[in-house]
Write a structure and sequence with these properties.
Layout lengths: L14 H7 L2 H4 L3 H17 L5 H19 L12 H13 L12 H37 L4 E6 L2 E7 H26 L1 E2 L15 H7 L4 E2 L3 H6 L2 H27 L7 E2 L18 H24 L15 H23 L1 E2 L1 H9 L5 H10 L4 H18 L8 H5 L9 H5 L1 H6 L9 H17 L8
Parallel strand pairs: 3-4
Antiparallel strand pairs: 1-2, 5-6
Helix pairs in contact: 3-4, 3-6, 3-8, 4-5, 6-7, 6-12, 6-19, 7-10, 7-19, 10-11, 10-12, 11-12, 14-15
Bound molecules: arginine.
């Protein structure tokens, strides 16, 4: 057991208590952030003459060596330390002696862990944004390639009106674009440095909090030291944004699963992104989409967990807050993994364009357009609706599409119908005529694509930032 706080104790900690209390098993995930924070702290201490230049240099060298040794598997992070902060400090003291004991001057593990978690989460925000950016590029590519790919649009999972695949993909482009804006907002709010908050009440040393904040890439220091050590709002916001991303991915997954089914055959998932059955040789299953859909629950769970953990905590730091890590880490890995796998699956997916168009033609998706045609010819809309209903019924009985009927047959339902009806109700015309902003008509879609391209150009990934 290596603890930082043995002084006032006369007995050893009970083994079970030690294990229950320790966080090294999971907070080693932000080892790099812990070293980075210590480096900034120590430089500031020296500049403020709180420690000497020699101690500063020794500490920085020691920290670099620890970082190197861990990354090159020469030093192992083991359970004998209580947490990652103890691991780094104990190793530093072992290597450089008394100078190492000065590292923690003017700092508490409370502001240290608040900093580490914030740095780590900030990195997750950026990486998630980078993955979303790439995913949006993939979606945009599918849009550009499928401006003329007609398919049925659905409501109630019943064929409703014809759209294009570009239009359908464009809906997801918007969802994931908004998800990015959420990440950007979170970044703006969270990018303040809690280091220097001390245990809760700041410190009597003349710390330069602006200096450490700047060195660590923050906009500035947090304004209140009690808030600095006990705020986890940014994590809640991130897990909320992550939950929304997962919700969008899950809806998309559900569609891929349906489209990939034997009944629909709209798409074919690439072999590299499918799995087989141990017993049924014919099977090629959409497991990736199903897993993404399933893992959504995990991320929602992480959001609920942190909200519940935080709700009863009085100011300032309480040990409950150690519970902000494990499940959140899992959610962070999950959302990133799901975005990149889905991206790979989408970019390799084959779209059966003929099947999609055929499905649009045979699902009466042009029924509204036939009604509108009658309206143009002077029939009141409510009557037109009734007439088309009868046409559809007759088609169902004969198992044909509306445009499979001859002109004479159609005229039996309404005498205003003329030869031009076939052009008016072809699914292509139905799509082409929908030209309002946001609609699937080609010219409207081209505008959406141009706007989406500009959006990507003007809103680079957060990963590009320092
Ligand atoms: N492992 C702790 C955590 O994750 C570090 C902070 C410990 N602070 C304390 N006062 N016990 O929250």
């Amino acid at each position: 057991m290596a603890q930082l706080w043995g002084g006032r104790f006369t007995k050893e900690t009970d083994q079970l208590v030690y294990a229950f209390n320790a966080s090294i098993g999971f907070d080693q995930k932000f080892f790099r952030e812990d070293v980075e924070g210590s480096r900034a702290h120590v430089k500031m201490l020296a500049k403020q003459k709180i420690i000497s230049q020699e101690d500063r240099d020794a500490i920085l060298k020691g920290l670099d060596e620890i970082l190197y040794d861990v990354e090159h598997h020469k030093l192992e992070i083991t359970e004998e330390y209580e947490d990652i902060h103890s691991f780094v400090e104990a190793n530093l003291i072992e290597r450089i002696g008394d100078a190492g004991k000065r590292l923690h001057t003017g700092r508490s593990r409370n502001d240290q862990v608040a900093l580490d978690m914030r740095l780590f989460t900030r990195r997750q925000v950026k990486e998630t944004d980078g993955l979303l950016y790439h995913f949006l590029e993939t979606i945009l590519k599918v849009m550009e390639e499928n401006l003329d790919t007609i398919m049925p649009g659905f409501t109630h999972l019943q064929k409703a009106q014809p759209i294009t695949l570009a239009h359908h993909m464009g809906a997801y482009f918007e969802m994931f674009r908004r998800d990015r804006t959420r990440l950007h907002d979170i970044y703006e709010r969270m990018n303040y440095c809690p280091l220097g908050s001390g245990a809760l009440a700041g410190t009597t040393y003349p710390l330069d909090r602006d200096m450490t904040a700047q060195a660590l890439g923050f906009y500035g220091p947090t304004a209140n030291s009690m808030d600095g050590v006990s705020d986890r709002d940014y994590l809640i916001e991130f897990l909320s944004a992550a939950s929304t991303i997962m919700m969008h991915l899950s809806r998309f997954s559900e569609e891929v699963i349906i489209w990939n089914s034997n009944e629909y055959r709209f798409v074919e998932i690439d072999d590299a992104y499918s799995t087989g059955s141990s017993i049924m040789p014919q099977k090629k299953n959409p497991d990736i989409a199903e897993l993404v859909r399933g893992k959504t629950g995990r991320v929602y769970g992480a959001l609920m967990q942190i909200l519940t953990t935080m709700k009863g905590i009085p100011l300032a730091y309480n040990k409950d807050m150690q519970e902000d890590k494990e499940i959140a880490f899992d959610a962070m890995d999950t959302v990133k993994g799901c975005i990149s796998l889905f991206d790979g699956m989408l970019s390799t997916m084959k779209f059966n364009r003929d099947v999609m168009e055929d499905s649009a033609r045979h699902g009466f998706t042009n029924a509204t357009d036939l009604a509108d045609y009658l309206v143009v010819k002077g029939v009141p809309f409510r009557d037109a609706h009734g007439i088309v209903g009868q046409v559809v019924l007759a088609c169902i009985e004969r198992n044909i599409a509306i445009d499979d009927m001859s002109l004479e047959e159609l005229q039996q339902f309404s005498s205003v119908i003329e030869e031009d009806v076939f052009h008016a109700i072809s699914v292509k015309t139905c799509v082409d005529k929908r030209l309002t902003i946001g609609a699937p008509g080609k010219a409207a879609m081209e505008r959406q694509i141009a706007y989406s391209k500009n959006y990507l150009k003007d809103n680079e990934s957060l990963e590009a930032r320092a």
